[in-house]
Amino acid sequence: MKLFLSPFLLLFPLCLSAQRGEFMLLKERKCNIGIRIGFNASLPIVHTLAIDGKELDSFSQRYRVGYLAAVSLRLGENRFFFNPSISWHRAESELQFALPQNFVMDDDKVNEAALVNHIHVKTSSIEVPLLIGYDLIKENPYRLSVMIGPKIKYRYKTNYDINIVEAAYSYFTEENHPYNLNLVTGINVTIGRLFLDFNYEFGITHTSSSFLYVLSDLDSPSSLEYKWRTNTISFALGILF
Questions:
Q1: Are 116 and 96 in contact (CB under 8 A)?
Q2: How far apart are CA 224 and CA 162, in angstroms?
């Protein structure tokens, strides 16, 4: 964590000296390169949560903080600009749910065990957003911009941790759609070379994951299906060259 925050600490003195040096003054160019690091918070939109085809109604979600790093281009001299980038994201989320009563042997434990079952998801992904932006305010060295566009996302690594309280064992079986198409909207605040990005990302396509588990009193396994869409906000600090 300290290693991840160190670039922020290095950029802080630059902010303090922005008015004392020419380094922080960004010249108008057709193309600027930017690097940024930041944080994300994911709270997926549940499309389907079902056991053996039966929808579950009792569930809740907890967001977890993840990290991101990116390299981007800013193309354009007028108020409109094109902002493609390539980024690495590490994201986490947790879904808690309760099994239907007919899946639980001791009904007295239903309330006690409600929402104790969980699916914890950790993903690492390479993402390519292609954003179109417009400068609402453009008074050198200040800019306030809005951006929107699609994002192609490839999850090259996904870890699932599933825990069902009364199951003898449970495990992940398969996942579909490692590639996703998302929609991104954002606000960019630029002061000289420094900029802040606030983005919201919504999944156009969904991800489907399947699990099997066996309750301690049963022999046959039950299947759990979990479909979800991306729902993420992110904050990043960067510098332009």
A1: yes
A2: 10
Domains of the chain: 2-240 (2.40.160)
- pLDDT per residue as tens digits for the range 51-91: 998 998 889 998 889 999 999 999 998 899 999 999 999 99
User: Would you say 55 and 80 are in contact if contact means Cβ atoms under 8 Å apart?
Assistant: no
**Per-residue confidence band for 105, with pLDDT thresholds at 50, 70 and 90:** very low
pTM: 0.82
pLDDT of residue 100: 75
